[in-house]
Each structure stands twice: as C-alpha cells, then as structure tokens.
Amino acid sequence: MDEIKLGDLVEGAVSPSAAAFIAKQTEFGAMRSDTPEAREARVRLYGTIFAADGTLAESGSAAPVAGRANIENNLRTLLGAFPTFRFTPVKIVVNGDVVFYEAANEAVINGGMVRYPAVYRVVLKDGEVTQGRRYHDRAEWFRHLAYPGRVPGAVTDVRLAPDQAAAGPRTKFQEYRGTVRAKGRTIDFGIVVSTGAGLARCYFDTLPLSYDDTEMGALFTELLTGAAPPSR
Prior knowledge:
Layout: H1 3-6, E1 10-11, H2 16-30, H3 36-49, E2 50-58, E3 65-66, H4 68-81, E4 86-95, E5 98-109, E6 112-125, E7 128-135, E8 156-167, E9 172-182, E10 185-196, E11 199-203, H5 207-210, H6 213-224
Parallel strand pairs: 1-4, 2-7
Antiparallel strand pairs: 2-3, 4-5, 5-6, 6-7, 8-9, 9-10, 10-11
C-alpha cells in the first residue's frame, strides 16, 4: 500500500494481506479499459485479487458469482458496456481480514457521465478475497437510458441482521445482510451503513426493490447491447 497516496483515507490496523488488497483495488480502479488489450489487462489484475474459489455478489441480487474465472468473465462483460468505468478511494477501514473500501465511481453511459458512490466489502484469506460484495445503487446506470428510476414499492418481511463491521478512530462501517420481500418475490439483500463526523450514509441497491426479475433482465439486455457504446 502506498501510504503517501492514501494517507488518512485508511483507518484500522492494516495487515500485509489487507495492504495487498488495497493496493490492487486502487490500481484496478485507476486503470483504463478503452482497448481490448487494456480491458484484458484490467480483468487479469482483478482476477488476482480473488481466491480461485472466491465469490462476488451485489448488495441486492440472486446467487453470487462464484470462482475466479466466472468473476473475470463478469467483469469482462461490465467493462465491455462501461469501458470508461473508474473509481477512486474515499475511505478505507480495516478490521483484521475484513476491509470496507468506499469509492467514488464514474462511467460514461449512453454518452453521459454517471457518478455514484460505492462500498466494496471483502473478507480476505492469505492475501486473497474469499468473499466480496459490492454495495451501490445499480439504478444509477440506467438514468441516461431514459429510466429515471422508480420509487421503490412496498418492501415487506425485512429480515436483516448485522454481518461484518470495521471501525477506525473516525469512521465505522456496519454491514447488514438477510432477505426482504419486494416486487412479489423474496430476495437476498444487504445494506452498508457508514457513520463518522456526525454523518450517516447508507449503501444499497434500489434496482431489485423497484423492478422484478423480468424487468431487470430487459434493462440489462438494453444496457449491455443496443444502448451500450460499441467496444473497440
């Protein structure tokens, strides 16, 4: 980890394992993806972050993506649609083998710049991510496709319990995981709450709360095909 560059952004006792993750995650966030060669280099770096049997999940989605090869393929698809995707670290808090990496994300989507916050929560073992979760609102991806987003409908049977947490001298991240019922089905769901300096922020995905599975499938088909800029 480059202490000079990250400085006060990092809180907690940073182990060598956490430092290796933070360095790779930060490098990945800054990389370019505007050519096939650049995208593939970025995919390869991202793959080295995960254990061979590691998993990656969205904050509100079905089954996680399992295995390094599948995680790499998932990223290939996303970078094909979002070749300008980048992020920079905002706050990083470490608790042993658990790291919360808050970031400012951006990408050009359908000709417009979209900026949105995210928290990446990982569990590490031997310097590799065994479990990764992305907490951000995927509804932001569709605002430039004439989908301004819906106000989430009735959310019932909320069953969320504390999961991972990390606290530093100024910032605390608390993850909650479980299930909620929305749009006629029960879904795995999660929220990350960040507190510090008298402020509280929540990171979660409104997309599955606003659209059912069929509607979300249609949205992603449009995003990843006709509405996405051509990949060189």
